[in-house]
Specification:
This protein is an alpha/beta fold and 293 residues long. It is built from 11 helices and 14 strands. Strand 2 (42-46), helix 3 (50-54) and strand 3 (62-63) form a beta-alpha-beta unit. The radius of gyration is 19 Å and the shape is globular.
Length: 293
């Protein structure tokens, strides 16, 4: 039961009706956060590496490097056992009652990945800070060099099977018209022109919406696109569909997962992604012009 029995839940997820995302606070900006700094039940999490955190961070932010909740090489793309995640979250002062705000350098993907892990383990009140640390600095907000020492709490994980997909549930999704697979890699990777894995192409039936189509740079700062533009980006997918996102190792597609949740879709992320899938010769792949094989 190292992963809280998550594998037992992933396949039944395909049989459940699509469920709308909750409407809690999910995306905040610098003004929202600076106006609430110091609130007792607000916890700010900085997912950058300790060296970057020590060079300056948001006041009161707790350093929780995203790599601390993933496995060791060669499977550093897969989440750590639930016992490790519970220990790391508890030490960081996290419990399920708080409003969490997560930020990274401004690339979005590390913060989104932590948000995905938190939601998989049952935390429902998690928001992404738009623009990350980069926009905070650019907007002249105060920073701190003093490491925050959180008071440990007891994080009790509760698996949410609707947030995670496995190799098996992704394989079953190929034949399920109620599930849409979104490949968040580049068009070249999707087409099979390049690949960092053993095989080239994509999972059959998947559609390609690159992860970086979700954001833009505004006045030099990284920002998620407005909701109207994001809705247009995913307009071809019915709100009643269930969605599985994947990329190469699960990082970029975590942002796609976050955006889909923000738009109200029932989304899950396939953590093993293309590197796990394509390195298994028993699983089908599709390459532009070649068809599935």
């Amino acid at each position: 039961m190292r992963r809280l029995g998550l594998l037992l839940f992933m396949v039944p997820w395909l049989l459940l009706p699509a469920r709308a995302a909750d409407r809690s606070v999910r995306l905040v900006d610098d003004e929202w956060l600076s106006g609430r700094s110091g609130q007792a039940e607000l916890l700010i999490l900085d997912v950058r590496e300790p060296q970057a955190y020590q060079q300056g961070h948001l006041p009161g932010a707790v350093n929780l490097p995203v790599n601390s909740i993933f496995g060791l090489d060669p499977r550093s793309d897969l989440m750590a056992p639930t016992s490790t995640i519970q220990r790391v979250f508890s030490t960081a002062g996290i419990d399920v009652s708080q409003q969490l705000v997560v930020y990274d350098s401004g690339t979005f993907i590390d913060a989104a990945r932590l948000i995905w892990i938190l939601e998989v383990h049952g935390h429902a009140r998690v928001a992404l800070k738009n623009g990350g640390y980069e926009s905070w600095l650019a907007n002249g907000k105060a920073i701190s060099f003093e490491a925050s020492q959180p008071q440990a709490r007891r994080f009790i994980p509760t698996a949410d099977p609707q947030r995670i997909a496995s190799k098996l549930s992704t394989r079953l999704a190929i034949d399920n018209p109620e599930v849409v697979l979104i490949d968040a890699r580049t068009p070249e990777e999707f087409a099979g022109e390049v690949s960092g894995a053993k095989r080239f192409g994509h999972i059959p039936t998947a559609i390609n919406i690159p992860w970086d189509a979700n954001y833009e740079r505004v006045d030099g700062q990284p920002k998620l696109k407005p909701l109207s533009e994001l809705r247009a980006l995913y307009a071809g997918i019915g709100q009643n569909k269930r969605i599985i996102t994947y990329c190469n190792r699960g990082k970029q597609s975590a942002l796609t997962y976050f955006v889909l949740r923000q738009l109200g879709y029932a989304a899950a992320a396939y953590g093993g992604s293309w590197f796990e899938w394509s390195n298994d010769p028993a699983l089908p792949i599709e390459r532009d012009g070649d068809g599935a094989h």
